[in-house]
Amino acid sequence: MYFDLDGTLCTYDESFESLFRRAVSPHGTPTDAAYEAYVERLLTALDRCEPDPYRRGFETVAEEIDLDATPAALAADYCDIEVDATVVTADAKRVLDTVAATNPTGIITNGDGEQQRAKLEFHGLDDRVDEVLVSNSHGVRKPDRELFELAKARLDADEFVYVGDSYDEDIVGAREAGFRTVYVDGGSVAAEDAAAADGIVSSVGELLDDDSLPAALEGPFASQA
User: What's the whole-model pTM score?
Assistant: First the structure.
């Protein structure tokens, strides 16, 4: 059983733009243009699995506004602020504990390896799973089938299930690699597309509710208490 991280197990209590402005404000004026340049460069770096994507983003910011801190220092500050803004509910932890009690369990997430693992450690999720695969650490991103195939090789199981909140990256990618899928539906995907998943829930905590999933998927989420 594998889970996505951002948007599935982990959410944020503040917008990314607000986090950016908090990181930049002590060192310069966080303009809209600077934020847009930062986002574009950061996402490009993440898509390409480049090293130090946050530093690369803030290098672009330094071209837009005057700063009294280096891009590397700003990146470090931002990453700390972002981790502090993450939220993992008690229900999400209970889901992981329930699944891990009887199944090999892991996380597949897009993002920077150091930053994603910092989130896991901050919330104690790293100790709840057997494997963690982060896209930038392997040079390939979801929905690429290669990352899901690598995940299958990491856990000893006859069948694999993936839980995620991005239809294109999580559900489509995992299904192409032979996973059964559970879509954490935020309502942004057409109903007919969302129905392509094997199960649909409105939040990860709902996985522990009776009758939230088809009978074939209920087993891993059944409490052993």
Answer: 0.92
